[in-house]
Every structure is written in structure tokens, then in C-alpha cells.
Amino acid sequence: MTKQKNNDAHTFSRRRFLGVSALTSASAIGLTTISLSATQKAQAGWFSPTELVQPQAPDGIASHYPAIIIGSGYGGAVSALRLGEEGVQTLVIEMGMNWNQTASDGKTFCTMTKPDGRSFWFKDRTEAPLDTIFGIDLVNRNIDRYPGVLDRMQHDGIDVFLGRCVGGGSIVNGGMAVTPKRDYFEEILPDVSSDDMYDTYYPRVRDMLNVNEVPEDIYASKYYRFSRVGEKTAEKAGFKTASVPNVYDFNYMRQEISGDVEKSGLGNEVIYGNNAGKQSLDRNYIPAAIGTGNVTLRCMTKVTRIQQDSNGVYHLSLETINVSGEVIETLSVSCEKLLLGAGSIGTSELLLRARETGDLPNLSEEIGQGWGNNGNLMLARKNKFWDYTGGQQSGFPVRGIDNWDDPEFPAFAELAPLPAGIETYTSLYLAITKNPERGHIQYDVATDSATVVWRADQEKVGLDIAEGLFDKINAATRTDYRTGLFSNGTHHSDPFTYHPLGGCLLNKATDNYGRVNGYQNLYVVDGSLLPGNLGVNPFLTITAMAERNIEHIIANDL
Ligand code: FAE
């Protein structure tokens, strides 16, 4: 084991540089296995090639690792970096693609206004949450089936959006990096020291992810008129608004406004990936992890089964696909320590399958429980003609209506953009309502898959809260709701969530640090640990919790 723990800025940026070049060159020649070459490691002086766990074929992986992480989203990426720094040979397995290569249009990712196969995970047509503009079919497009970055999964009563790629949700999300209200955090996670979280882990991840706030000059530009109108109308009804920090680099956005660089955040590059500006995991944690020389990333490879032998070693069955979705290789790998970072649905599915098929029979009944949609729903209002919102809008939200402490209509409603290219006089909101309802995830033997169970009456609790709030804004501004955006003909989305949470709750399905009950050396590191409603967007908390837990695990279990 070669320790590489050194958090100084120079070492971090050198590792990140090496990791980025490994990701880019692997992507250029279509490799699914990405790590520093033995030569790079030796040149960097961190690692002797003789210390490799086993010799590797050019695009192969070793058959056994001290640690394997499933999934390369926030939880997986944090764990990979910290294990890599500690000198632990770690394999990260990710079912989606590594996006580090430009296509024939010179871009890595496509825009929301001209989506192509890069947008969705093996679909024939895009399935954006907004369906139409004024009832006209201007949003969704027929596309080629391809391993695009965003997935929309239809579950029982709710659709769930997910990132499916190296970097997971960080590639497709809106970058809103919000710290929960401390008193609410203490209410929902009473066994987690809030001093540790608020003094150490939240500041650490804000730093790592380059969280920043929109400067006044950018907020005053035409690209945030939609947000200023949203604030004005909310304040007219007596509501407070709050700043929403983001991982989009506003210095870069300033250059977009001045015309010094190509438009990215101002050019409709959000939920199908962002070509510049956004600090997603492929620009920080993941290359830095690979740059330690101890982390190998295997993409386009899905974990289908987890078993354990009598020595306690975990054995994983893997399927590697090509860009047509055909399985081109089946593999098995084993490890001493297994960390699940496949997201709320992915992690729950793997553990439920293992429990229900008898592969890991000691998993508890808590697996699959406590799932929530973070109170998500989308809703639209009309504005008066003088409150125009602009055809060109920034894709990255920076303000929200903070009504969380209201006992009647508790919600945090983000002022979301609607960059339609034409004036719509519309305010769009992504509301996080304080919906206490919880669903669950169940495994279906017939389809060998897991599904979320979420009832219409559970969704209605959140909708009633949101409508209570927005009825007040409509009354104060003498306006009404906007239809013509959602295919259901109403002013709000059908049940969907961007923020699936829970399924393997901390201190229920696991101990206080994500160690799964019933098994040794089995850990959950992602959003499935968190209770189904955080009151704010979740990735900052998922990342901070992963930092907290892996630090404890490294100190106590290695
Ligand atoms: P996640 O990032 O989902 O990563 C899981 C990874 O595991 C994925 O890359 C999967 O492909 C991979 N995986 C799953 N199953 C397997 C398997 N069997 N084998 C191999 N790999 C597998 O998990 N949150 C915010 O805080 N702010 C926002 O502005 C925001 N906007 C969002 C917008 C959209 C459109 C979406 C979809 C989400 C948004 N989120 C936002 C949510 C946020 O991205 C999400 O909570 C985190 O990404 C979840 O992190 P995890 O590490 O739990």
C-alpha cells in the first residue's frame, strides 16, 4: 500500500491534471478502463509499477481489488479520492460513458434546444420534464439511441431523472449547491454531529466543488431577469427570497456575457451536460482520484450481481456494453471492501436483488424503505406583460423563495429558468415542498429490477403545499397559473423527481457511517443514506456526508 495523502493545492492540481489527461486520452481511443499508466505513475514518483495488484491488459482490469466502488456520482467520487490518497488500490465501476471527447460538432455535450443521442440514455425521443411551449411541440425531439447522459425511469406512480455517466448526477444537474437549514438537519439526522458537518464537511466540499454565488453585475443582466421577476412577485406576496449558491463558475459566465468565450451556461447547456463553466465531478474529484495512481475507473460497465464467499470476499458480476447497448463482455471481479455509490435507486436495487435472491440473505428489511422525492415538483405562473422574463436566460438558477418555516405552506421554491428563445411571460419554479410522505423501493423477481412505489395521494400532499404558496403570489400580483408547458394540460408537472433520496437509511439500514447492517466491509456512500426530504437540493449534503463517512471508515476499518 502506497500512501499518497497530501491535500496541498499543488499536489491536488497535479493529480487532477494527470487524471484529466488520462480521462481524455482514454475517451479519445474508446477505452473503458481508465487509470494512470505505470509510466505516468513512476514518472510522478508516487508509485512503483511493481506494486500493481495484478498486471493489467491494455483495456482490462485486475480480477481482485482491496476496494471496489459501484457508481461514480458524488458518493462514489469522494470515496474514490480519499481511498486513492490512502494508497488503497480501488476500482470504480460506472455503467455510463466517460464524456471527455468532442463529437463532430466540436462539442462534448448537446444543448437542450437541439438535443441528439448524447442527451438521453437509450431513448428514441427526448423526455424533458417540460413538454411543450404554449402547447406547441417545441421541446422534445426524436433522437438516436445512444448512452446519453440523462435517464428518465418510469416507476410506479413517479418518474425519476438520473445522471448515467462518469460523474453521475453532477453532469446533468443544475449545479445548485445548497446547505440545509441547520435546525432541520438536526431534526432529520439527530445522530450526526451538526458541528462536524457545518464546521468541517460542508466547508470542505464547498471548496472542493468550487461553490460560488452570482455577483451583482451578472444578476443585473438580461440573463437573470426571470429571477428578478420571480423575486419581485414573491416579495409582493410577502415571501422572503434567498440566494442559491451554484457550482457554475460565474467568472466564466461574465466572459460569456462580454462575448469573450462561447456561450455555455447562457447557451442552454444544462440537463444534457455542460461544455464549460460547470464544476462537475469530472473536473475535480474524479481526475484527482485517478491522479493518485491508485484508482482505476471502468465505465460502460454495469454491476448486475453481488455475492459473498465464505471468506467474506465480495464477488461482482459485470456486463460491459458498447454504444449500441449490446453486452460485449461479461466479467467478474472480487474485493475485500465494497462501497455502493450507485445512487438511491441503483444502490437499493443491487441490495434488494441480493437479499431477495438469497445472495446476501442477512440484509435487513430496512433496505428499500424510507424513499422520498425531496418534495419535488415543477409549477408555472403567468406574469403581467411588464414583468417579461426574457427569451435568453441563464440555465443556472441562483435564487429561491424560502418559505420553509411556514407551518401552512412549507417549501423552498427555486426560481427556475425557461430559456425558450422567445418571450413567454412565465415564471417557472422547481419547488421542494416539506412533504413528509415516504414511498419504498421493491424488487420484482419477474423483471429482476426494482421499482419505486409512490401513490397519487402522497404526491398531492406536496402539490397542495406548492399551490397554497403560489395561490398567494397569484392573488398579490393578480396573475394566474400558466398551462401549455406540461403534457397533462395543467400548470404543474406529473409526479417526477430530480432528487431521489433514501432506500438505505443511515442508522436504519446501516450504522451511523454507512456500514450496511448484517455484513462486514459493505458500505453505502450515496444519496440512499439520506432521509427522503432534505429541504434543499441534495448533492452538497450527499458529498459532505460521503466525506464524513469515508474519513471515519479509513480511520477505523482499514
Ligand atoms: P448519482 O450521482 O446518481 O450517481 C450514481 C451513479 O451510479 C450513476 O453514474 C449511475 O450511472 C451509476 N450506477 C447506477 N447503477 C449502477 C450499476 N448497477 N453498475 C454501475 N454503475 C451504476 O448518485 N441536486 C442538487 O443538489 N442541485 C441541483 O441543482 C440538482 N439538479 C438536478 C437536475 C437534474 C436534471 C437531475 C437528474 C438531478 C439534479 N440534482 C440536483 C440531484 C443530484 O444530481 C443527485 O442528488 C446526485 O447526483 C446524487 O448523487 P449520488 O452519489 O447519490
C-alpha Rg, in Å?
Answer: 23 Å
β-strand percent reads: 15-25%
C-alpha termini separation: 11 Å
The coarse overall form would be globular
Report on the architecture of this protein.
- The protein has 558 residues and is α/β, with parallel strands linked by helices.
- The chain contains 12 helices and 20 strands.
- Strands 1, 2, 3, 7, 8, 9, 10 and 20 form an 8-stranded mixed β-sheet that branches. It has a 5-stranded antiparallel β-sheet with strand order 6-13-14-15-12, with helices on one face.
- The radius of gyration is 23 Å and the shape is globular.
- The N and C termini lie close together (11 Å).
- The site of flavin-N7 protonated-adenine dinucleotide has 39 residues, from α3, β5, β8, α10 and α12.
- Residues 70-75, 93-96, 161-165, 168-170, 172-176, 271, 302-303, 341-343, 346, 350, 498-499, 526-527, 537-539, 542 line the site of flavin-N7 protonated-adenine dinucleotide.
